[in-house]
Amino acid sequence: MCMNTQINDWNQVRTAYHIARLGTVSAAAKFLELHHAKVIRQVTNLEEELGHKLFHRHARAYNPTAAGENLSRKTSVNEEQLQGLVGLIQEHGSKVTGELIVTALPRFNTLVTSWLAMLQKKIQA
Predict the structure, then answer these.
(1) Which residues of 39-75 are buried (b: 16+ CB within 10 A; e: fewer)?
(2) Which of 46, 64, 109, 123 would give a disulfide with 12, using CB separation of 3.0 to 4.6 Å?
(3) CB under 8 Å to 109, separation ≥6 — which residues?
């Protein structure tokens, strides 16, 4: 990954992670409740942004490349942490109050903002 590369859409990373985890575009699309074509488009866009192929595409499966395995491994940690954070917040129900201050390295600002937007949607649901 190039040092100047910035991921602009966490959903693309999440989609690639679920393809790697589940092995097929169809399974990822079903899990994410997205159209098959949107899943493919998100992965293609992410690969173009990163400048690396993330999957070896086969008729029945998408196998991660080394870059795809690295992305999947790192993303799984972030996904687990996000789910843990959601769980912690849900334990408190609607009684969670106070100020939340989040800091991040500049290259992760877009990712963190996207995660927080997802979290806010889950909390409001």
Answers:
(1) bbebbeebbebbebebbeeeeeebebbebbeebbeeb
(2) 46
(3) none
CATH of the domain at 24: 1.10.10.10
pLDDT, tens digit, 9 for 90 and up, residues 61-70: 899 999 989 8
| Closest of 51, 64, 60 to residue 17, by C-alpha | 64
> How large is the C-alpha radius of gyration of the chain?
16
Residue 28 in any domain: the answer is yes
pLDDT in tens, 1-28: 444 566 778 889 989 999 999 999 999 9
Residue-range definition of the domain harbouring residue 19: 10-124
The angle subtended at Cα 15 by Cα 11 and Cα 19, nearest 5°, is 170
